[in-house]
């Protein structure tokens, strides 16, 4: 059986020191302030994605819109769950989640979209998912072993963003590209 790198008495003593830091211990290996900033950028991204999917849900129209709108609504709910997970992690790390509507789109990696055409909506949602995938992959790699809990949060989000991208790609492949009728 492998031995601990630090003896248990030292770990116990350290656990009592700086108790106000909650889960942040000497073993935490990431730049906490930068992690909080990145988490808040991801939070903004998820909120903007929720809003974009909601808009697309309510404004989707045309012959093929019903199943596509249902997909938009499902993704909106999942993006909101992502935002909630990120906000929860920010608080766990002693930070404050930034929900300021005045700066959401500036901090978001993805963009808001007001397309009126169903195919354009799907394409813009696919682009946003691809941005989230690229960003979250980089973030997970950057976090490495410095903050494994936050890394796992991003890995979980990443898996679902990949599913969303696959869903959007599938919709594009199945729909005729003249959806205005």
UniProtKB/TrEMBL annotation:
One of its GO terms (cellular component) is cytosol. CDD domains: Ferritin_like. The keyword Repressor does not apply. Signal peptide: none annotated. Its cofactor is heme b. Keywords: Iron, Iron storage, Metal-binding. GO terms for molecular function: ferric iron binding; ferroxidase activity; heme binding. Fe cation binds at residues 46, 82, 129, 161, 164. InterPro entries: Dps-like, Ferritin-like, Ferritin-like_diiron, Ferritin-like_SF, Ferritin_DPS_dom. Coiled coil: none annotated. This is Bacterioferritin. GO terms for biological process: intracellular iron ion homeostasis. It comes from Streptomyces lydicus. The keyword Iron applies. Residues 29-179 form the Ferritin-like diiron domain.
């Amino acid at each position: 059986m492998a031995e601990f790198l630090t003896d248990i008495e030292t770990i116990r003593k350290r656990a009592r020191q700086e108790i106000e830091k909650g889960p942040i211990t000497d073993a935490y290996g990431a730049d906490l302030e930068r992690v909080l900033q990145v988490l808040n950028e991801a939070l903004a991204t998820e909120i903007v994605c929720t809003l974009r999917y909601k808009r697309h849900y309510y404004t989707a129209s045309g012959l093929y819109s019903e199943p596509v709108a249902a997909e938009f609504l499902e993704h909106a709910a999942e993006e909101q769950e992502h935002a909630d997970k990120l906000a929860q992690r920010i608080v766990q790390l002693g930070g404050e989640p930034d929900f300021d509507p005045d700066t959401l789109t500036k901090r978001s990696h993805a963009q808001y979209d007001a397309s009126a055409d169903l195919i354009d909506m799907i394409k813009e949602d696919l682009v946003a998912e691809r941005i989230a995938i690229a960003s979250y992959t980089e973030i997970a790699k950057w976090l490495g072993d410095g903050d494994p809990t936050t890394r796992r949060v991003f890995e979980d989000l990443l898996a679902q963003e990949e599913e969303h991208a696959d869903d959007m790609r599938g919709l594009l492949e199945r729909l005729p590209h003249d959806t205005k009728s």
